[in-house]
From TrEMBL:
<feature type="binding site">
    <location>
        <position position="152"/>
    </location>
    <ligand>
        <name>Mn(2+)</name>
    </ligand>
</feature>
<dbReference type="InterPro" id="IPR002933">
    <property type="entry name" value="Peptidase_M20"/>
</dbReference>
<feature type="binding site">
    <location>
        <position position="116"/>
    </location>
    <ligand>
        <name>Mn(2+)</name>
    </ligand>
</feature>
<dbReference type="GO" id="GO:0019877">
    <property type="term" value="P:diaminopimelate biosynthetic process"/>
</dbReference>
<dbReference type="GO" id="GO:0046872">
    <property type="term" value="F:metal ion binding"/>
</dbReference>
<protein>
    <submittedName>
        <fullName>Putative hydrolase YxeP</fullName>
        <ecNumber>3.-.-.-</ecNumber>
    </submittedName>
</protein>
<dbReference type="GO" id="GO:0050118">
    <property type="term" value="F:N-acetyldiaminopimelate deacetylase activity"/>
</dbReference>
<keyword id="KW-0378">Hydrolase</keyword>
<feature type="binding site">
    <location>
        <position position="118"/>
    </location>
    <ligand>
        <name>Mn(2+)</name>
    </ligand>
</feature>
<dbReference type="InterPro" id="IPR011650">
    <property type="entry name" value="Peptidase_M20_dimer"/>
</dbReference>
<keyword id="KW-0464">Manganese</keyword>
<feature type="binding site">
    <location>
        <position position="179"/>
    </location>
    <ligand>
        <name>Mn(2+)</name>
    </ligand>
</feature>
<keyword id="KW-0479">Metal-binding</keyword>
<dbReference type="Pfam" id="PF01546">
    <property type="entry name" value="Peptidase_M20"/>
</dbReference>
<dbReference type="InterPro" id="IPR017439">
    <property type="entry name" value="Amidohydrolase"/>
</dbReference>
<dbReference type="InterPro" id="IPR036264">
    <property type="entry name" value="Bact_exopeptidase_dim_dom"/>
</dbReference>
<feature type="domain" description="Peptidase M20 dimerisation">
    <location>
        <begin position="201"/>
        <end position="296"/>
    </location>
</feature>
Amino acid sequence: MASTAQEAAVLAGLNGIGGWQDEFYRDLHAHPELSHQEHRTAGLIAEKLRSWGYEVREGVGGTGVVGILRNGDGAGVLLRADIDALPVREATGLPYASAVSATDAGGHEVPVMHACGHDVHVTCLLGAAQLFSEHTDQWQGTLVALFQPAEEVGDGARGMVEDGLAELLPKVDVALGQHVLPAPAGIVGTGSGPMLAAADSMRITVYGRGGHGSMPQATVDPVVLASMIVLRLQMVVSREVAPTETAVLTVGSITAGTKSNVISDHAVLQLNVRTYSESTRTTILDAIRRIVTAECQASNSPKDPEFELFDRFPVTDNDAETTRRVAAAFTTHFGDRAVELPRQSASEDFSDIPNALGVPYTYWGVGGIDPETFQAAAKAGRIAQDIPVNHSPSFAPVIEPTLRTGTEALVVAALAWLGK
């Protein structure tokens, strides 16, 4: 593990990079790009990495960027940041707020915002990359700075893997990643085991027999059928999943019909499942298919239902030993600002990369909310009401100490393997 002296030496340049980091972050926030469209962002990243002497690979998995810095014998550490934004209209009122719109995959013009904090992730990793490049006398091994596209749609990591990522990389021993969260800025939280949920979205089409609203006896009403399915699905977690397991099943959308007195011939349900183990994941997905099929048969549906899985994310299962090593380094460096991170119900595709490379990984959180604002909300019992969460149009991490903390965390964690 790196000594605090080595950390101090590498991090001595933090104040020197703060100026460009702040400016770069504001620019990135003002110019967000949707998944698979991150061309400007990727170009800015590649330009920075090249200026610091990194070997750069662009276009990995479409718009992914990989920077490699070799510094003698030693471990290989991969640090990852995601780079895409969301189709959200910004409502922060910030002077550098996004006014960008773009055409999405469906051909629709949509507003775009860095509503999840990926602009923080990019800026922090670039800062860490510069610090490592300027202090090669304090560490040894190989640093891989990986900037991944399309996390928000769940296929960016997989796309990089399928594009030959493993063949592009030197030997990697560990993969590390982080995410800004609606917690007090300056806080760094770690936890081992299943930390982020696996996620599966499903689109289900059920069929009826359309007709006039005044003659329901001549129809098979897909609205009633869909309603019965929703009610039955509410019992899957409570009656088919063990109480010791955590799972969420949400029906987020039902679409059917066009007019009040017309019974449609089909209905479409969209639902989302969050689980922390493959066995529970399989149990719930199988139960959904069984219940939908049975309800269609009970309603005398004229056609079998159709199922489409999309936006699938793996579980993020932090390796125990890797997490212990990073947590110890954080405790030494951050003191009481290093905390235990509770299990999160959000999802990430980061683990697709270390899983494909066959290396252990850990993934931690850094706070991004002004501490005084957070404490005031907590004191009033209004955290849920007053603190915007990721994906909110009002999500606005404070620039400092968020960027500084995120940059420090990446450096300190990597030095746990790269320190001399």
